[in-house]
Every structure is written in structure tokens, then in C-alpha cells.
DNA sequence: AGATTATCTGTAGAGTTGTTCAGACGTTAA
DNA sequence: TTAACGTCTGAACAACTCTACAGATAATCT
């Protein structure tokens, strides 16, 4: 935060070239100390990765409205039933969705309120008012 | 769209097999009508995709604290400077980050408050208190 | 001018991911 | 029992993504 170095790089050892080049060493150290653990960072990336496919996004948006069976999800999203099943398996692993089985039917629903919030936030970002909750001021 | 069926599949035409199978046709129609446009869904998936790589997540977490130059970002995140540059180019496209150039230095900062919120929300999801804003009750 | 620095870019290869097809499994109906 | 149904799974293939290396560019310094 104090960041005394502004425009001139501060080489730790002017002669040695194995040192990492830094401009604001103080800030680097501060940010590094606040950086979450590797496992947390990768977990976070995994969650976002699950939301990085249009098909899975459609499935999750559909599930925002309540539980649905696989064939209805396929009809809603335009994916094949096999595709929906594959997608749901990925989402089941990290417990983003959960299943309720009734006979040969499988009813899926959202299992994670954070994912619901991520979806809502993302939808407002993209311009689609959607679920009209999480209304917040945009100081973009 | 009468679709009062609950557990028994309602074949539109008992003889024809080219029809999509539905269980709750009414709900399918309702959800389909609320489904965002294709462009919005893919845009959303693209944004989440940008957050689906640990390296980019680290870069963005670092930028939560304020602007940084490329070499400091490399030192902070452990990525190569080339890797950071490639990552920043991806993030520059959809205006997730923005550049301020001063001489030969390039100072990057977050350009999108929604992405900041997505990151904060994701960090709380993963258990890392992090930026201690966006504190909300978890009814998981 | 030439050398050095910070950043950017193109390319190639390994690795991962999404989709489709074919068939498996367990459940229900005839 | 046999048949139909809903869902799940494995394998194969194209498409995409990440990483590293080499080199390009533009700014600064000697």
C-alpha cells in the first residue's frame, strides 16, 4: 500500500539475474500473503469451470425454478438426454446439484445456494434481469 | 400446454416416436420462455470460463487489491511473465481488466465490478473469507 | 547508435473437454 | 417373463485450451 517504488524497477541484486524482477516489492509481498491457498484457488477455478459451458448454464438456469427430471431438462435446454446426463454427473460431483429418485425417474435440483447467487449475479452482468433478486447498484 | 401430467409421461402422439418426451410439459414451456437468449447464455459461459483457470484467478485476486504491473503480477502469482501477458490479453477482450500504460510499464486493474463480486462470492464459497465484503447468510 | 528493459505476440505440442453413439442398468407395465 | 421406458455410462473423435519457447515491439538508458 505504501509502495515507495513508482516507475523504477528495484532489482534486489543488480548483478544477479536469477532474481525475480519486481517493481513494487512491498505490494507483491502484501498481496502474496493474502493470496488464498492453492487448493482454494483451484477449487474456485473448478466451480467456475462448471459454469463455463452453455449447456450446463442452461441446465442450471432451468433448475433455478425448481426440480426437474432429465428428459424435461433435455427438452428445455435443447441438449440430448445423454448430454444432460453427462453434464449432471459433472455437477453432482462437487454437489452443485442433487438427485431425488422416484421409480425410474430422476429429479434434479440445485444443491448450492452460492451457485445460485453466482448465476443470478452473472445473469444481471449479462444484462438479463432474470431472477430479480440480488439487485445491487452497478458502479461499473 | 395443458400438461397436467405429474408422474406419467404424456406422449403427444402415442404412435409417433419423433416427438420429444416430456413429463411436465407445462413447466418445460414456462422455463423455456424464461430462458435467456442464446447470446446471453454464451456470454455468461464465456465470463465464467475466464474465471476457470487457477492462474487467471490468482491474477484477478491480486488485482482486487489495486492495479499492478505485469512483472509484479508474475512474481505474485508464480506464473511466467509471458503467461501473465497471455492471460491478461484474454481478460482484456471482454473488458474484465483495463490497462494504464506509463512508459514501458503496463499497469492492469479490474474493470468490471460484477467480476469483483463473482470473485468475492466464489472466495466465500470456497471458505476463504478473503475480502470480507459481500457477507451473506449461507442457507446451504 | 546500440544495449537493455518491459511487455506483447505467434506457434507448436500436450493435455483437456464436449458431443455423439452404442449399449448397460434398474424400474415399471403387459 | 418379456417389453418398454428413463437414466446412466464408456469409448471415440473433433475441438478447444494451456504452457513454453522464441522472437517482436516499443521505451529507456549509456
Describe how the helices and strands are arranged:
The structure is a homodimer of 140-residue chains.
Chain A: H1 25-34, H2 38-50, H3 54-63, E1 68-69, H4 70-77, H5 81-92, E2 97-102, E3 105-110, H6 113-126
Antiparallel strand pairs in A: 1-3, 2-3
Helix pairs in contact in A: 3-4, 4-5
Chain A binds a DNA duplex (30 and 30 nucleotides) through helix 5.
TL;DR?
Two copies of one chain form a homodimer. Chain A is mainly alpha-helical and about 140 residues long.
Any overview of this molecule?
2 copies of one chain form a homodimer. With 140 residues, the first copy, chain A, is mainly alpha-helical. Helices cover 48% and strands 10% of the residues of chain A. In chain A, strands 1-3-2 form a 3-stranded antiparallel sheet. In chain A, strand 2 (97-102) and strand 3 form a beta hairpin. The radius of gyration of chain A is 22 Å and the shape is elongated. Chain A starts with 24 loop residues before the first helix and ends in a 14-residue tail after the last helix. The interface between A and B is large, with 68 and 68 residues. Chain A binds a DNA duplex (30 and 30 nucleotides) through helix 5.
